[in-house]
Specification:
seven-stranded parallel beta sheet, about 50% helix, alpha/beta, 29 strands, elongated, about 900 residues
């Protein structure tokens, strides 16, 4: 995309040397993507209409020679398992899951052995000999069955190889290595059959032994020529990994003993502006890339250049950065081409199928007969965006939440859903008849989802594309399973599905030759750009780092000429330096965080550029940090509109509860949401009993136990009878409050025992008091009281209304009691000064109990009033009355003076709440 690119030079060669026989010329490139760019380069140079030469990728070319179809990795694993079962004793056969653990690694080794044309028997016997030597010192009598099996495994490797090889050949399919080996076997015959054809190999770097042999043979037969794209900077430096492979070919190929090596260029040493930019985390890289692209557009517009982004490429070292990058691009980008597929991993349809697998596999592992489903798994599916609008299950979701169903049997679920839709039945059909029926059900489910989606809505059209991608994967699995029926465990199916779904990509539509190019590292091969932005330049990402996923040790690989991590790094090095070779402006991004997710040291390639800096290169370093705002968070401020004031008047008429008043003190915005807007918490299944639910159960149990004694004095016998009722009454209240929730095991059983103990301990304290001579008469239990507050400072009368847990007459005094399941100390109900009462949330219990005293005062008939708290976590302290402490004088009874001072504070609070000019302002805690 610069003045003379590598593909421009190839186009020139084609026109100058092969223009008369384009139909017999075949250009072989490293990948399919470069084909479009080569055709474009040809279009720019031809003056008349011509037929294009055939342009193919190296893999397609090798398949043509071998005449064998490529098998995909999962199908290969299934076929290998068939072979394994056919040659292994029934007693020694492993399940598919265990087999797959080592088979994947072994298949990779088979692939490498074949690609490099090694003798498999020699290599695999070598591995067996190594293992024998490791166990040399063990006496025969000390060899365990496990050890014998281990040695037998290595002995069987050549047998596995030979049987798999012949099994696949019979079927006319093969893995990459097998196809390469067969292509070499078939090379003479192929060469003779294409005498009139001319092959042109272009842009290669690392070739395996099979590719080398094929290309060298065709060159020697004068049926092919090859053009390299290597810079003299890398070729002439014996230590530079970017030229590692090409140096070997130049030195070892017979062709180059007498023929010139084409082409060696001198582009890398030309003027380049290299900007190295570090930023914390990966998202920052996407944001900066977006800013740079915006600047390129602005600069181009200023110069009057139209195709400003045609020469710009963003190369993603980590392909997970694609979506953040797309969101970061400016709206002025226009034409855009993305050469990588969008993974199906996290799209809604894939997530739904994964959740479905999770729900059903969990149900089967619990108890296949009763088929018990966990509520979270069920709700995850029922509330999924592809299910909720179409399955008519809102009522079912509400029932599950309201009744605290934690585990639901399949039968119960079907009973709860009245008139189930087809979608519902497909989702919750039992998975008990094997893998193929399960896959067929999922296939029908995806078809039903597709029919629910509209073609008119752009988002739904995209979802349809994902649904179709997964539908194809499921149908492929049906095909596999129909051929291999003995692999039939749902768990195995799930693990295979997870592997296959990674391959299900949805392609982006775009114009490949216009606009900004976004690609992965491998897609950049053979292409040249003026401006290159490379992301994720960290060790472990770019280059990818060591991964020893092989049974063949490093030293054996070195000896046999198999690629090690050294060669794999050299491939990355070539790709990186080729990106830079003809570029003029280069941006290299790396994550400055060296620890944590997506982190790692700065890439060695950046260090190498610095150490081996070329004379004409300008390298600058910058660190970008996120701009921190001066204010971390702006509190919410809501002015009081006319409708808000009407709502406040409505509350004043219906009644302000003490808890509403303390809610305002805690946070005015919380009061606004709960009381003005009437936003209640979402009803959810309470898997473990919450503290407020436990409090309700204890309150209700005490109410029921004491109800028979209203307006009566309690005797010791009454309390003794209450003890006998605790177990039954607590259980009854649990069932009423917690509904269908599980209380017979786990944390809930502990909560059940805690509730019983709290009630029992309370009764013990009560019994002790009666024995000590207290005369206790119950006046009211869980009763609502109210009183209108008139005051000149209030815009209108305000009703104070609340529910009092218990009012009793004890030894002639009125005692108002509020139960608390949490811990309360004497300090929480002791007041030293009235100033600041309504500003400190720590005074919430004082405000509450004094409100109860104020409401009941008119009914006390002049009797002394005490108001306080009984804390179930502090029962030893007994009744904790409100007391006003001045110096060392403590007043525990509620006098007229105390109520007058309290009302002054209450009016101040209500005036603020009802003042139109005082907005609701969030408290930042």
């Amino acid at each position: 995309m610069t003045n003379i690119t590598f593909l421009d030079k190839i186009a020139t060669v084609l026109i100058e040397k092969h223009a008369t026989r384009f139909s017999d010329t075949i250009v072989v490139l490293p990948n399919k993507r470069a084909k479009i760019f080569l055709i474009e380069a040809l279009k720019r140079q031809v003056t008349t209409n011509v037929f294009s030469p055939e342009i193919i990728s190296i893999e397609d070319f090798i398949q043509d020679i071998a005449s064998i179809r490529t098998i995909d990795p999962i199908e290969l694993l299934f076929e290998f398992y068939e072979v394994y079962l056919s040659i292994t004793d029934t007693t020694s056969q492993q399940t598919f899951e265990l087999f797959a653990n080592w088979a994947k690694t072994l298949l990779q080794d088979f692939n490498e052995i074949d690609r490099y044309l090694l003798d498999p028997t020699h290599v695999l016997s070598y591995l067996k000999d190594i293992e024998d030597i490791k166990k040399w010192g063990i006496e025969v009598e000390n060899k365990t069955t496990l050890l014998e099996k281990y040695i037998d495994f290595w002995k069987l490797l050549p047998v596995y190889y030979q049987n798999l090889y012949s099994h696949l050949l019979k079927k006319g399919v093969g893995y990459q290595g097998l196809i390469y080996r067969e292509a070499v076997h078939n090379l003479i015959h192929f060469s003779e059959s294409v005498q009139d054809k001319k092959y042109l190999f272009a842009g290669f770097n690392a070739l395996n032994a099979a590719e080398e042999k094929i290309i060298q043979h065709l060159i020697a037969s004068e049926q092919a020529e090859i053009f390299w794209d290597v810079d003299q900077t890398f070729l002439n430096d014996p230590y530079h990994d970017a030229g590692l492979f090409v140096r070997r070919f130049k030195e070892n190929w017979k062709h180059y003993k007498v023929n010139p090596f084409e082409w060696i260029v001198d582009d890398f040493s030309q003027t380049k502006d290299i900007k190295v930019i570090g930023t914390p985390k990966t998202i920052g890289q996407a944001k900066i890339a977006g800013n740079i692209i915006e600047n390129v557009i602005l600069e181009s517009n200023a110069l009057g250049i139209d195709d400003h982004l045609d020469k710009v490429a963003v190369v993603l070292g980590d392909e997970n950065l694609l979506v953040p990058l797309l969101y970061s691009l400016p709206s002025t980008v226009g034409a855009l081409n993305i050469t990588m597929g969008y993974s199906s991993k996290n799209n809604p349809a894939q997530i739904l199928i994964s959740k479905l697998f999770k729900m059903h596999t969990n149900a089967l592992s619990r108890n296949a007969k009763s088929y018990v489903l966990y509520y979270k798994d069920v709700l995850d599916i029922l509330t999924h965006p592809l299910v909720e609008p179409y399955a008519n299950t809102n009522a079912l979701v509400k029932i599950i939440n309201l009744n605290n169903y934690t585990f639901i049997t399949h039968h119960k679920l079907m009973d709860l859903q009245v008139e189930p839709s087809e979608l519902f039945l497909l989702l919750f059909q039992k998975w008990e008849n094997g893998s193929i029926p399960v896959l067929e059900t999922i296939s029908k489910l995806l078809q039903t989802i597709k029919e629910n989606l509209s073609n008119d809505n752009e988002e739904e059209k995209i979802t349809k594309a994902f649904v179709f991608a997964i539908f194809k994967v499921i149908n492929k699995l049906i095909n596999y399973y129909s051929k291999h029926e003995h692999i039939d465990k749902i768990e195995t199916l799930y693990s295979i599905y997870k592997q296959v779904i990674d391959l299900a990509e949805v392609s982006f539509e775009g114009e490949p030759l216009n606009g900004l190019q976004i690609m992965g590292v491998l897609e950049s091969r053979v292409l040249d750009f003026d401006t290159v932005i490379v992301t994720s330049m960290n060790e472990g990402k770019f280059p990818a780092g060591k991964s020893q996923n092989s049974f063949i040790p490093y030293d054996v690989k070195r000896e046999l000429g198999l690629p090690t991590f050294k060669e794999k790094d050299a491939i990355y090095t070539y790709h990186f330096y080729h990106l830079l070779q003809r570029a003029k402006t280069i941006y290299l991004f790396y994550n400055t965080e060296s620890e944590g997710l997506d982190a790692g040291e700065k890439s060695r390639f950046i260090t190498q550029l610095e150490v081996e800096k070329q004379k004409n290169h300008t390298i600058t370093h910058e660190i970008y940090n996120a701009v921190l705002p001066d204010t971390a968070y702006q509190p919410i401020v809501i002015p009081k509109s006319e409708s808000v004031m009407l709502r406040l008047k409505e509350i004043a008429e219906k009644g302000f509860s003490p808890s509403a008043l303390t809610s305002y003190i805690r946070n005015p915005i919380q009061f606004y949401f709960q009381k003005i807007l009437r936003i209640s918490e979402v009803e959810e299944v309470e898997e473990n009993i919450a503290l407020n639910t436990l409090g309700t159960i204890i309150h209700e149990t005490l109410r029921v136990l004491y109800e028979p004694f209203i307006n009566k004095f309690i005797s010791e016998t009454d309390i003794q009878n209450c003890f006998k009722q605790i177990d039954d009454e607590v259980l009854k209240q649990f069932k009423l409050v917690y509904k269908e929730g599980e209380i017979k095991k786990g944390k809930n059983l502990l909560a059940f025992e805690v509730a019983k103990r709290n009630v029992s301990n309370f009764l013990k304290v009560e019994l002790e008091n009666i024995k000590n001579g207290d005369a206790i008469k119950i006046i009211a239990l869980e009763q609502t009281f109210e009183r209108i507050l008139h005051h000149p400072n209030l815009p209108f009368p305000v009703l104070i209304k609340g529910n009092v847990d218990r009012i009793e007459e004890r030894n002639g005094n009125i005692r108002i009691i509020d139960y608390k399941t949490g811990k309360v100390d004497k300090a929480n109900v002791t007041l030293k000064s009235w100033n600041g009462l309504i500003e400190d949330i720590k005074s919430d219990k004082i405000i509450q109990v004094l409100a109860y005293a104020y409401m009941y005062e008119t009914e006390a008939k002049g009797k002394t009033i005490e108001a306080g708290i009984i804390s179930f976590k502090n029962l030893k302290a007994g009744f904790l009355p409100f007391n006003f402490k001045v110096d060392k004088t403590v007043n525990g009874s509620i006098t007229d003076d105390i109520l007058r001072n309290y009302l002054e504070q209450l009016v101040l609070l209500l005036s603020e709440i009802l003042d139109v000019n005082t907005p609701f302002k969030e408290k930042i805690i």
